Structures are given as structure tokens and as C-alpha cells.
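# step 3/5: fold
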Amino acid sequence: MNKKTVWLAILLMAFGAASYAQTSKKPEWKELKVFHSFMSSSFHPAEEGNFTPLRQKADSLLIVAKNWQASVIPADFKPVETREALAKLVAQCERVKKEVDNKASNEVLMKNITAAHDVFHTIVGECRKTEEH
């Protein structure tokens, strides 16, 4: 085989693998992604001592948590556990908003946003169904 043929074969195999990967992906949960974007853009700065994003986004964080809770749970998540965890997440985001509204200390805010962050990781980790082989 000449070099052009080898490269063409490699490209075709790579394209085939990429196409397979795209079609075999699990369904995307849009509301999860939206919540994650708000959580990461407020929690991670707070970890670094910058509470301004959290204080500015507390209202939005609660809104997107409620939107996520109201959305349809995809088939690759455990429905009962996910509903329970989303209820905890909304309650925790309500606490965060209340503490922000009450001008709570950074220490109190960190405690509450960390609890919300932990619930988020429970949802994306423990609430997913495991694949059976």
C-alpha cells in the first residue's frame, strides 16, 4: 500500500470511530448541564476565597436547580433516588440564597454551597444507573 492509501484508511477508521462514539452517547440532560455551569462558576471561585460570584448568582442557582428538578429524568438515572436528591439540592440552594440575602459570612456560605455541591455530585454519580454487561 502506498502512503496515501494508508492515510486514507486511517482517516476512514478514525471517522468511523468518531461517528460510533457520537451515536452511542447517552442522552444529554440539558438542565443538568445548565445547573453545573452555575454551580461551577460560583462554587470554585468560593473555594479560592472569591465569594462575589456566589453572592451574585445565588438567585440564578436556585432558579436553575428548580428547573432541573422539574425536568424529565433521563432513563439512565435512577428515578426515585434522583427525585430525592434533586429535592435536597433545591432545599440546599434555597439555604444558599437565604444566607446570601441575609449577608451571611463567607464561612457560612462556604458550608452551604459545599453541601449543595456534594448533592450535585451525588446526583451525577450515585443516581446514575450502572450499565449491566
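# step 4/5: annotate
Residues 64 and 111 are 20 Å apart (CA to CA).
# step 5/5: archive (pending)
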